[in-house]
Amino acid sequence: MAVRKANAQWQGGLKEGKGNLSLGSGAFEGSYSFLSRFEEGNGTNPEELIAAAHAACFSMALSAGLEQAGYQPESVKTEAQVKLVQNDSGFTITQVDLMSEAKIPNISEEDFQQHAKGAKENCPVSKVLAGAEITLDAKLV
User: Fold this and answer.
1) Burial letters 98-126, b for 16+ CB under 10 A, else e
2) Domain ranges across the chain
3) CATH topology of domain 49-140
4) pLDDT band for position 17 (cuts 50, 70, 90)
5) Is 103 left (phi over 0), alpha (psi -120 to 50) or beta?
6) According to the model, what pLDDT value does residue 89 have?
7) 40-49: Cβ within 8 A, 24+ apart
8) Can you name the residues that pair with 87 across neighbouring β-strands?
9) What was the pLDDT predicted at 57?
10) pLDDT digits over 48-82, tens only?
11) 136 and 95 in contact (C-beta within 8 Å)?
12) Residue 141 DSSP code
């Protein structure tokens, strides 16, 4: 199976430091910092990257499941919101909310919701994030 990689480098202390990261494919390179992670600074952050991965994984898993069932998906658009909270033991990701809109001809709402639920439960990123609550709001458009 495929092995994917990314690289990250951090320089300095937590609040004043800065970092850069890059995807192994070369498709993205960017900066991250305390401000971009915990406040509203410029750059990306680990939770944003997790959200992108989960949205992409869910969209692909839903399309694959629908196609295997004989449907021809026209489009699946998903937004993921990753919630990072601070508790007594530090910071943790407690929840991921998936909001998806799909254009699938000739499918019932019930069948669509069943496939969306299956994609949420079975996409590899959902599985790796199983320690967090994952919610789904799937709409057929």
Assistant:
1) bebebebeebeeeebeebbeebbeebebb
2) 6-38, 49-140
3) GMP Synthetase; Chain A, domain 3 (3.30.300)
4) very high
5) beta
6) 87
7) 47/82, 47/84, 47/93, 48/82, 49/21
8) 90
9) 98
10) 999 999 999 999 999 999 999 999 999 999 999 99
11) no
12) -
Long-range residue pairs from 33-40, CB within 8 A, at least 24 positions apart, any chain: 37/84
- Looking at residue 91, its amino acid is F
Count CB-CB contacts under 10 A for residue 129.
20
CA 20 from chain centre, in angstroms, equals 20
Burial label, 48 (beta-carbon count in 10 A; 0-12, 13-18, 19+)? middle
Looking at residue 1, what is its pLDDT? 80
Whole-number Å distance between alpha carbons of 49 and 60? 17
Q: Rounded to whole angstroms, how far apart are CA atoms 122 and 30?
A: 30
Q: How far is CA 52 from CA 12, 47, 55, 56, in A?
A: 27, 9, 5, 6
Q: With the CA atoms of 93, 19, 42 and 86 taken in that order, what torsion angle do they form, in degrees rounded to the nearest 10?
A: 20
Give the Å distances, CA to CA, from 106 to 60, 74, 114: 19, 11, 15
